[in-house]
């Protein structure tokens, strides 16, 4: 194992122990990054990727530094990195389920593909046949990603909000941190994300015959969503947990 792999593993193990303490799901991180897949790193602006044939996940190297400080300390700075880590783990998870011949998942996957075959992109066009696999996987990855991201982001802001309500400075921060109007509008964004019903994107053929990625407008397949809630999110970030955030006193409507 290279230096970055070793460092990543150590930081990930810290995040997993911490995640267990704060009550976020960690099994998908363990199975992907510590068991089924090897991890490689990019050092430029390349997008993260998952090779489900070779069992390799490629992540941006900067994620290691973000994971090293991933704590709910009232300072919003790692929510995106944590969300990304789960997003790629879901791609790996789906690849693993399909490659290992998990019957229950194969049936669900087929049903979801049939569902998305009549699904629409945000421009009203139908999802093409060759885009259906991607529609299913991206819906799962984006759903899990946004649930985790929103949970993390909201808890950072709520932590800070609690310090301010008690009138004590946040000991995790060197200066006297105060939530700003920007933070509050970000919090509203999180509330919006948590009430979102459509997830994922897929290949969209354009008039010129090119392909591009476009967001899907059709609500997520219910069985797929239930599966993500149960098997990946371990029942920990469900709608009840989301309501805790959407009903919270900060932000506004
Ligand atoms: Zn993706």
Structural commentary:
With 253 residues, the chain is mostly helical. The protein has one domain. It is 55% helix and 9% strand. It has helices at 3-22, 27-36, 63-68, 79-99, 103-116, 132-166, 181-194, 222-232, 239-246, and strands at residues 38-42, 49-51, 56-60, 201-205, 211-215. It has a three-stranded mixed β-sheet. A hairpin with a 4-residue loop joins strand 2 and strand 3. Helix 4 runs antiparallel to helix 6 (132-166). The chain is globular, with a radius of gyration of 19 Å. The model has no long low-confidence stretch (mean pLDDT 89). The chain binds zinc ion. Zinc ion is lined by residues 87, 91, 138, 141.
Question: What are its keywords?
Answer:
single chain; 253 residues; mainly alpha; three-stranded mixed β-sheet; two-stranded antiparallel ribbon; 9 helices; globular; binds zinc ion
């Amino acid at each position: 194992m290279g230096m970055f792999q070793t460092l990543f593993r150590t930081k990930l193990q810290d995040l997993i122990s911490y995640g267990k303490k704060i009550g976020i799901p960690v099994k998908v991180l363990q199975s992907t990054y510590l068991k089924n897949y090897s991890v490689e790193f990019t050092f430029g602006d390349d997008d993260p990727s998952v090779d489900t044939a070779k069992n390799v996940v490629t992540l941006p190297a900067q994620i290691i530094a973000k994971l090293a400080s991933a704590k709910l300390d009232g300072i919003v700075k790692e929510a995106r990195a944590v969300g990304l880590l789960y997003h790629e783990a879901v791609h790996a998870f789906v690849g693993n389920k399909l490659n290992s011949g998990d019957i229950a998942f194969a049936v669900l996957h087929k049903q979801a593909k049939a569902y998305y075959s009549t699904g629409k992109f945000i421009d009203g066009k139908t999802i093409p046949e060759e885009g259906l696999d991607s529609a299913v996987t991206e819906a799962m990855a984006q759903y899990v990603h946004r649930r985790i991201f929103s949970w993390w982001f909201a808890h950072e802001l709520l932590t800070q909000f609690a310090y301010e309500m008690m009138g004590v400075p946040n000991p995790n921060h060197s200066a006297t941190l105060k939530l700003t109007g920007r933070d509050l509008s970000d919090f509203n964004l999180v509330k919006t994300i948590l009430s979102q019903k459509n997830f994922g994107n897929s290949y969209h053929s354009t008039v010129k015959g090119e392909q591009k990625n476009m967001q899907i407008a059709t609500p997520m397949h219910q069985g797929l969503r239930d599966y993500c809630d149960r098997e990946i999110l371990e029942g920990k970030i469900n709608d009840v947990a989301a309501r805790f955030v959407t009903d919270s006193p900060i932000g506004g409507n």
